[in-house]
Amino acid sequence: RGKINGSMFAGQYAAWAIGAALFPFIGSQYGYQIVYLVNALMILLILLFPFIVNETSKRKVKEKIASLVLKEFKTKTVLLIALFSPLVFMNEGIMSFIIPIYMRDGLGLSDVQVGFIAMILPVFLAVGSLFGGIVTDKIGRKSALYLFITFNIVGTASLIFADSWWKLSIIYGMIGFFMGGHSTVSCALFMDVTNPRIGATQYGIFTGIANVGLNGAGMITGTLAISLGFARTFLYAAWLFGPALLVLYFIRIKKDRNGT
Fold first, then answer.
1. 131, 240 Cβ separation under 8 angstroms
2. Does residue 259 carry a pLDDT above 70?
3. What is the pLDDT of residues 68-105, one digit of tens each?
4. Where are the alpha helices (DSSP H) in 31-164?
5. What superfamily does domain 2-250 belong to in CATH?
6. Can you give the residue ranges of every domain in the chain?
């Protein structure tokens, strides 16, 4: 499951990296209307895949989905993971929004420069995702999460020293690597506790709650930057991992046959 999640995230982040570098360049040369048009055409192409891929089997659920979901979310472990899911992704939400703003307003970089440096994050997210999948399948979910989150705290806090584009690039890459690692492990953890009889529903709830944390933190990023300044916002983003680590400590995971 770790390697599967790593592969999925790596593909997503690789596409993000290409878009981060390519679209600002196209926009600056030919206008952003062309960027929107190209993006729309890409979405139309993606819509063809559901018609090409055939489902091989379907699992029949005799009980009502709602009753099974309620039963699952009455257990302590599932509830703790549901609480953990938004907390662990809040840092990513802030980083995704604050760094481009910091590059433009704090370092005075152009749109094309911002795009190329912004590409660093998804590139290292992809690498970190693959690495995280391998690591978590070897040492377990909680150990891998402690490892990646701790290093990400250090990386995020180090942004207060990023007063030039090259310093930011190095630290940004580090953050991306460890962020990709803990994102992959977190989603593998969601899979571990998901009841296969309601797999799509329960996993969707976990990821939906996670997106509330990610996008919710992103929504307040501009306000934080104005109120606290960039340096304090970076430190606040690092601090947000504290509650996530506290909840993670109380999560008890039963080992499966592979010891993960």
1. no
2. no
3. 888 999 999 999 999 999 999 999 999 999 999 999 99
4. 32-46, 49-52, 65-72, 76-101, 111-118, 120-139, 141-157
5. MFS general substrate transporter like domains (1.20.1250.20)
6. 2-250
| pLDDT tier for residue 257 given thresholds of 50, 70 and 90 | very low
Measured N-to-C along each axis, helices 120-139 and 141-157 cross at an angle, to the nearest 10 degrees, of 150
Q: How far is CA 112 from CA 26, 98, 102, 105, 117, in A?
A: 9, 17, 14, 14, 9
| Residue 89 near residue 214 (C-beta atoms within 8 A) | yes
Q: How far is the C-alpha of 178 from the C-alpha of 182, rounded, in Å?
A: 6
Question: How many angstroms separate the CA atoms of 247 and 88, rounded?
Answer: 10
**Section 158-170 average pLDDT:** 96
Backbone angles phi, psi at 203, to 5 degrees: -65, -35
Give just the sign of the alpha carbon dihedral 158, 172, 176, 207: positive
Q: How far apart are CA 244 and CA 90, in angstroms?
A: 9
Fill in the amino acid letter for 119.
Answer: M
pTM, two decimal places: 0.81
Phi, psi for residue 153 in degrees, rounded to 5: -60, -45
Q: Are 177 and 128 in contact (CB under 8 A)?
A: yes
C-alpha 15/C-alpha 216 separation (Å) is 23
Q: Do 53 and 181 form a contact (C-beta atoms < 8 A)? A: no
Instruction: Give residues with Cβ within 8 angstroms of 3, minimum separation 6.
Output: 133, 134, 137
Q: Which amino acid is at 5?
A: N
- What is the separation of C-alpha 206 from the centre of its chain, rounded to a whole number of angstroms? 13
The widest CA-to-CA distance across the chain, in whole angstroms, is: 60
Alpha-carbon distance of 140 to 2, in angstroms, equals 9
Amino acid at position 79, single letter: L
